[in-house]
Amino acid sequence: MTKTSGATFSAARIEKRVRALGREISREYQGRRLDVVVTMDRGFVFAADLIRAIDVPVALHFLREDVRDVDLAGKPRREVFFANRAAMNSDDKERPPWKGRDVLLVDAVIDSGITQDFLLRRIGEGKPRSLRLAVLLDKTSKRRLALEPDYFGFRTASNVLWSGYGLARTDGTGGNGKQLAAGKTVHRPVKSKQGRRK
Which residue ranges form the domains of the chain, and what is each CATH number? Predict the structure, then answer.
C-alpha cells in the first residue's frame, strides 16, 4: 500500500492490530516459553504492547543499535553494532543461550532487511528450536534480501517516513506520539534517457 504525507495509523487501529498479532503468536506458541529479543531504539513501544498481548510465558532480552563511522582500508564506512553480547553471541559452546528455545525477534521497521537478517543469523548460531521475526511496519519495495517477517502490523511504502509510537522524526522528536503519522516523502532522483538525474 502507498502512504502519503498526512496519512496516519490511529492509536485505536494500532492497538487492534497489535492485539491480533498477540493472539496469533499465543496460538502458535501455546504451552511453550517464548524468548523475545527486542531492538530497543525503535522497537521498544511496539514490543511493550505486543508482549502484553501474548498469553504465554515470555522472557525478555534487549539489543541496542550503535551506529559508527569507521575507516576500512582508507575508505569511510558506516557500520551498525549491537550492544548486549549475551543476547547476540553464542560463545559458550557448552550451552549456547538459545539452544532449544523458541525465539522471536521484535523490531519496529523492516526495509532492506539487512539488519534483521544479520540479527537472525547471529541468534540462529545458538541453535534455537524456532526463530521468527515480528515487525510493526513492513516496507517491501526496498528489500535487498529474500527475507519476510513472520508477523507484521502494517505494510507501507518504503519512501514514507513515519513518526510516533516509538519512531522519531529526523530531528529525534515525535517518538512519544500515540499514533503513527506519515511525514515527508523521500524523493529519489530518477534517471532520464540520457542518463542524467532529474
Answer: 11-159 (3.40.50.2020)
